Amino acid sequence: MHFVRLGDFLAASMITGPKHNLLQIRLGTGVQGTPACEYLPPHGECQHEPLIEEAIIAHVLEGIAEANSRLGTSHTVSHIRYVQNDTKPEVVYGYIALKIIEHLDAGGVFQESPNAP
After folding, report:
1. How many domains in the chain?
2. Is the pTM of this model over 0.90?
3. Quick check: is 27 in a domain?
4. DSSP assignment, residue 52?
5. Domain of life of the organism in this record (predicted)?
6. Which domain holds residue 42?
7. Which of 19, 3, 28 is nearest to 90 (CA)?
């Protein structure tokens, strides 16, 4: 997994064979509300079954809740970004969200990206 900081967003990408997923999240504090969610333009020419945005949001929130439970933290997510032509299943985004929080909590390095939107 590759971890990057894009301005206010923490991001991780996971590529396993023909499957590829990128998640960018902006963390917040306080009570978890419904985060803003947007898709980023497609990368490359591949086409897959469309992702279901509501499922991505639900799984990201589950991943953050699991990370908070495991680590004793209280992160919330205010904004989610994903790539329009990434691959299913949406549950992967919860796993990536969990890994972002674990990496952050462990003091892991997020490579700074000069291409922050």
Report:
1. 1
2. yes
3. yes
4. -
5. Bacteria
6. 2-112
7. 19
Q: Cβ-count burial of 8 within 10 angstroms (0-12 exposed, 13-18 middle, 19+ buried)?
A: middle
Three-state DSSP state, 12 = strand
Domain membership flag for residue 117: no
Which residues, listed in sequence order, are joined to residue 76 by a DSSP beta bridge? 28
- Beta bridge mates, 27: 77
Residue 76 near residue 32 (C-beta atoms within 8 A): yes
Q: In this structure, is residue 58 part of a structural domain?
A: yes
Task: Tell me what the pLDDT averaged over the chain comes to.
Answer: 93
Distance of alpha carbon 89 from the chain centroid:
14
Quick: pLDDT tens for 52-79. Answer: 999 999 999 999 999 999 999 999 999 9
Helices 53-71 & 91-105, crossing angle to 10 degrees? 30
